[in-house]
Amino acid sequence: ALNCTPPRCCSLGKILHFILNNAFQVKVVAVDAEMNVFYEESVHFDRDLPEFGTRGGVHVHKDGLTVTSPVLMWVQALDVILEKMKASGFDFSQVLALSGAGQQHGSIYWQAGAQQALRSLSPDLPLHQQLQACFSISDCPVWMDSSTTAQCRQLEAAVGGAQALSCLTGSRAYERFTGNQIAKIYQQNPKAYSHTERISLVSSFAASLFLGSYSPIDYSDGSGMNLLQIQDKVWSQACLGSCAPHLEEKLGQPVPSCSVVGAISSYYVQRYGFPPGCKVVAFTGDNPASLAGMRLEEGDIAVSLGTSDTLFLWLQEPMPALEGHIFCNPVDPQHYMALLCFKNGSLMREKIRDEFASCSWSEFSKALQSTEMGNGGNLGFYFDVMEITPEIIGRHRFNTENHKVSAFPGDVEVRALIEGQFMAKRIHAEGLGYRVMSKTKILATGGASHNRDILQVLADVFGAPVYVIDTANSACVGSAYRAFHGLAGGTDMPFSEVVKLAPNPRLAATPSPGASQVYEALLPKFAKLEQRILSQTRGPPE
Ligand SMILES: O=C(CO)[C@@H](O)[C@H](O)CF
Q: Where does the Carbohydrate kinase FGGY N-terminal domain lie (predicted)?
């Protein structure tokens, strides 16, 4: 789309992913050559496809652990959104490239013979009428599933333990990760597994629909399977062998995330008017696509301040650990990205606001304004629900002599919460190999990013400027940007160069004078106290 002639050529970012309120949907954005979003559309599974009976796009099974989505619902949602676009007069003939993203870890099981059906789609019929018999598993496991603990333990044992698996694949075994899900299906439904000719992720499944044949899995989303060696970017034979037989041939070979995987199927050319040369760029996971949509660069960190707080890190030298997830970077094949999730996010901030700032964000801000950086050495850990990073529960307060105290004055509680949340983020990010650099930008998003005083603490703790961005469409916009990147030649052209025209984030806070001195002194102390709580609240080390 870079050197195009028509007045508006564009790329499409298509995505199967969840939005802020956890409702699942298919969402589309179209981005023109000036990187402006000029078209958006979405289809909500629960509302627009009620015949599938999902809630939040999924079925939670009676065991409370198994969570699946009907694959034909996703297929039909694509039919619906393309028909909506057609009915709205969207000019498909100007789409030079498309890419997309899918919720990570989910898996789709194509029945033997399905590729033939994909390759011979009739443009007179919708997809869902032609793919009815193409799946050996109709209810696909998705990222909310937590029913594979046994398979996780088997996988870790097969490769020498949790840390060994993390060094190999970027994460220790997690229930939602695809290898463990495949292992469960092989063990519990061997017949369906043997009738499966191809296994896709949600991302490569969506790309396959557009390609009209099986799309390969990209390195970045493939890093969320506990199967891909993230350094060599090849499947780990030890992991494959532990999960299920003949697995490599069902997965196909992984490809760089910026790869053009082919031209769009003639089905879309004839049915919707896409140009025959429209390129399909490898689809990826929603989080890697969000990193692209936020245009994160080397040294940057994105902080999504939501119900739970999520950190997106750009890493050059990852240090795989027993927490967090390291994925191959979706826009720079030499580098990596990491996700870190902190469960006690906005709900914890709201509780402290209610208890110590009269339920008012302006009182909360006043408390931050009236207390000094470093909070007089008072440090707090606030986990009203079991925290993920690290696994601690409860509220723990320490005074400047490192003595436990049961309470702080109201204003000090407020600052202790926010400084503690951000010091924890910096410490655990650095534990994965992240380093603040002179060019570091912190991109803040999510509810709390509207509070300037909270962002000031974030800037002070990291010693870096904080910018705010709207990420409602980040995964989708990131997919459209990646489509442009693939079109521009992928690895030969830096992603940042391709998307330099995109709108810039707004500067919201810069570090206060003296912030580095204050927090360079406090961070090691905070880390030691966190380890002290951990050793007190869980048994002896494994
Ligand atoms: O499991 C996750 C990441 O590891 C979630 O963010 C899913 O990608 C959401 F779709």
A: 139-293
